[in-house]
Design a protein that fits this description.
73 residues, mainly alpha, two-stranded parallel sheet, 3 helices, 47% helix
């Protein structure tokens, strides 16, 4: 098993999606609030980036999930 950081894992998922024909939604959640981190994940192919901690109430993450999944309310 190869251990990857989040950016490398995102790149690997995006590369493998071409082989399997599936486009997964990749959401990154981190306590790193640097602009560099957000940019690295975005360039790697992440669909969203959210900072920890976040609440379970109305939040940007909940709104984002609602655009992809009907069951989020």
């Amino acid at each position: 098993i190869e251990i990857k950081n989040g950016v490398d894992a995102t790149l690997a998922i995006r590369k493998s999606q071409k082989c399997i024909g599936v486009v997964p939604v990749i959401i990154c959640i981190s306590d790193d609030k640097s602009n560099q981190s957000v940019e690295e994940f975005t360039v790697a192919g992440a669909d969203g980036f959210y900072h920890k901690p976040f609440s379970s109430g109305s939040s940007p993450l909940k709104e984002f999930l609602g655009t992809y999944f009907e069951f989020v309310d």
